[in-house]
Solute carrier family 8 member B1 (Xiphophorus maculatus), 586 residues
Amino acid sequence: MSASGFLALLLVLLSSGRLLASGTGNFSTQPGVGLAGPTSLAMMSESSDECDRVMNYSAAERCAFVKRTPDCSMEDGFINYLRLAFCLLAPNLTPLTITLCMVWLLVLFLILGLTASKFFCPNLSAISSTLHCSHNVAGVTFLALGNGAPDIFSAMAAISHPHTAGLAVGALFGAGIFVTTVVAGSVALVKPFAVASRPFLRDVIFYMIAVFWTFDILYRGTITMGETLGYLFLYVVYVLTVVISSFIYNWQKNSATNGIQHVPHIPELNSSDSSDDDDVPGMRGGTIQQEYESEYRPLLPYSESTSEILLSSLNPVDNRKWRRKPWTWKVVKVVKTPLEVLLLLCVPVVDPDKEDRNWRRPLNSLHMITAPLLCVLIFQSGAYGGVMIQGEFPVWLLILLLGMFLAAIVFCTTTNDHPPKYHPLFAFLGFVVSAVLISAAASEVVSLLHMLGVVLSLSNTVLGLTLLAWGNSIGDLFSDITIARQGYPRMAIAACFGGIIFNMLFGVGLGCLMQMYETHSSAQFESEGLLTWILPGALGLSLVLSFLIVPLTQFHLGRSYGVFLLVFYCIFLLIALLTEFRIIHT
């Protein structure tokens, strides 16, 4: 089943379970009757300003409640989905509203995935290459940021407001449990292997510390500026630990090699003491890619015109790959192509693995116009798009004129064949634009999930641990399984534990800083009952069990361990849903 069908089926099951739990089998479309039964506006307390209570009102009174309730303002998104659901569309169209929102949610997840994989990560790789970072530092900083961008920006958007913090809690803990059980278990089932002992224990210990610290924050319901900075500093300590341990390991390895130079070197690919795997698929893939391109290189020199370069640069479909791919890949590619073309038009990409570093003179000149203009129009949900300078001159028009001036300079001072010396600066521009775009899409996802939670009477936490967590993690599942099948299960399991540490520490830490900046006080977390404590408890328990079981098995992850992790996740999800539907309660 595809990811889109899986998410749609999940939402149907959640809504059905909620309706059955509340004693009704369908959405009521009669005026004056809601999911919780008929309730008059006058019967409700005037102090009830929680937007989640809108379903307690009659269908005719919900629009007025949404308009007068500050909690329903949803200022962070381009669209006020609550007004769309309760004011613009008729009450009998609620199923259609949910269907359209699910389609839009899948589009947003597609934007997040495409922007992160095709633009954000390559530009980060180019920046890392430009700054001459080592592989270890790049892996735990730039690579972690690139892989976790959707999770981090979604968490930041949710935690920036206390009433949606449950989405971030559910997403971060839900994704953590999903990745460390389902993804890690699937890797163990596909390719049993011996895990690297020291990196595994290091990552699990740091992740347990992060989980315990987050649990303490949720228990107290608040976090100060000093604690937030300490929370972020924990990841700095983690990075230093990775770098220092890698340095010590390499020093010991070199010393041992120098001491026995007369003995032929035999690489121990399955040794559990190796700190980091050097056999990276991307490295061999680069050689394969070069051979592939050289095979199709024209025999006679040929120079494309400027217009041909522009059209080929905006074409995301490789005709040679198209002929070799199955029909399912072709269908998905057709769906993604319009979005990819728009992204190619607005976001520059620098590829250090290519000979010309992906220099496209006409397109890169056009990026000087489209990239800054896109940032202004979507930054903070378009807050600066309508700003006027002295009440007369719009900011977007000023950015447009400056961009046209810079585009003319770039086009007139460069050639089609050779990238300019300042071409690496386009990687920084692409990084900024893709980060702003991911942040905007993440804000829309949070606002949309909040509306779905209100309409279906589901808590933010359960939406976070299901839809948001699965939407952001389903790509990790497929990519890690693919890496394991290619013979690199260690890399896949390292990605399971290393990336989510970064997501949790920076997602919560930066989100708290944003909330403090907006409220000028300590960050607050609103607890959503028993489910809030089940999440960190389940994640902490899975980490403790892995910390105990894996060393007992001599760090060999077999199929029995994979089955155990999958069963653990199924039990956790069952308990979480039973708690959400009030079958399990305090």
Q: What stands out?
A: Residues 1-49, 262-296 have pLDDT under 50 and may be disordered. The first strand starts at residue 193 and ends at 194. The CA atoms of residues 63 and 87 lie 5 Å apart.
